[in-house]
Structures are given as structure tokens and as C-alpha cells.
Amino acid sequence: MPKSVLFNRDQVLENVTDLFWRKGYNGTSMQDLVDVTGLNRSSIYNTFGDKFQLFEESLRHYQTIQNDRLRETFSKAKSPKEAIISLFHGISDDIKEGDQKGCMLTSCTSELSAELPMIRDFLVENKDRVVASFAALIEGAQQLGEISPMKDPNTLALYLFSSLQGIRVTSMLEPDLEAVTAEVLSIL
Q1: How far is CA 14 from the centre of its chain?
Q2: Residue 13 has pLDDT above 50, yes or no
Q3: Confidence band of 80 (pLDDT split at 50, 70, 90)
Q4: Average pLDDT in the 138-164 region?
Q5: 17-64, pLDDT tens digit by residue?
Q6: Which of 48, 83, 125, 130 could form a disulfide with 77 if both were Cys (CB 3.0 to 4.6 A apart)?
Q7: Where are the domains of the chain?
Q8: 29: helix, coil or strand?
Q9: What long-range pairs does 50-59 form, CB within 8 A, spacing at least 24?
Q10: What's the pLDDT at 1?
Q11: Quick one: 1-61 is in which CATH superfamily?
């Protein structure tokens, strides 16, 4: 009879995601994973596979949380332009409240995208999805007259994505980014 799982898999994944977010893939040891999960090595290997497989799962977990946050922010907005502004202000508010870990996906980009093609592919797909979401909002805002139709939606969307990533990285060093956020949004 197979052994039953005696731990909360979702909570373990949440703890592991936070660990990888703080320390990165290369900075996280198997002992760190044992310590943060409370599981022994064989349980980690049997449940999640090796460290890299666990890292991939934590990236997907983080991405899901962030995508849910984007959808929620966008759905609450009264207009496409307001959706973009709300997202940036929400992140600025998180930073002011002490969330200065940056973005796990951005950190992963600088740590692993040059080394590991499968991680790079994952990150490019994520970027493409976020940029497409921004572009759709920009096009909607242009149709409503909120953003000038003279601006290229795809270029502006990539600018917003790049600015968002920059804000998340800079927040690790400087928590007061309201003026920078306002400047980014002034392009709209």
C-alpha cells in the first residue's frame, strides 16, 4: 500500500516559492529546501522531483498568482487606462508596505535565462502574455479616446512591461518609487 501524503502540498509549494524568490535558484540549497518544507530529502524528491523540477513548479505557481492578480486588477477597473494605472499603483503600494523582494520572474531572468533555454522560453512566453494584455488594454483605451491613437500599442505595451520590471528590481533598493511610477504612467 502506498504511503499517504501527510503534508499540505500547497503550503509547501508556497514556502518553496518564497525561498526561491528570496535566494534564487543557485542560492538555494537542498538543505534550505528541507528546512523550509519540513520534509526530508526523499519526500521532496518523491513528491516534486529534483531541485530544478521543484523550481520550475514554483515559477509556475508564482506566475499563476501574478496572472490572477493582473486579471483581478484589470477586471475591477472602470476603463482600460484605469486598469494599467491601477496595476502600477498597486505595485507601488505593495512596495511602500514592505514588499521589496522584487519580481521572482525578473530575478529569474537575470539569473538563469542565459544559461537555461527552457527557463528562457518560459520567461519569453510570460513576457509575451503580459505585453499582449497591455497592448489589448492600450488598444481599448485608444478606442475610448483615453490614449492617443498615434502611439503604437505594441511598443507602448513593451515599454510598460519593461518599466514594470525595472520598478520591481529598483524597489529592492529604493522603496519610494511613487515619482518614478507617475513618470512611467505619464507616457499614457
Answers
A1: 14
A2: yes
A3: very high
A4: 97
A5: 999 999 999 999 999 999 999 999 999 999 999 999 999 999 999 999
A6: 83
A7: 1-61, 77-188
A8: coil
A9: 51/25, 52/25, 54/16, 55/20, 55/25, 55/28, 56/119, 56/122, 57/13, 58/13, 58/16, 58/17, 58/20, 58/21, 59/20, 59/104, 59/105, 59/108, 59/119, 59/122
A10: 46
A11: Homeodomain-like (1.10.10.60)
Q: For residue 45, what is its C-alpha cell? A: 524528491
Neighbours of 167 (CB within 10 A): 21
Residues in Cβ contact with 125 at an 8 Å cutoff, skipping those fewer than 6 apart:
none
User: 3-state DSSP call for residue 97?
Assistant: coil
Maximal CA-CA distance, the chain:
66
> Do 1-61 and 77-188 come out as alike in CATH topology?
no
Rounded CA gap, 112 and 67, in Å?
Answer: 21
182: its cell numbers: 507617475
Q: Which amino acid is at 155?
A: T
Nearest to 70 by CA among 87, 54, 89, 90: 87
The pTM assigned to this predicted structure is 0.88
pLDDT tier, 73 (very low <50, low <70, confident <90, very high otherwise): very high
What is 77-188's CATH superfamily? Answer: Tetracycline Repressor, domain 2 (1.10.357.10)
Percent of the chain with pLDDT over 70: 97
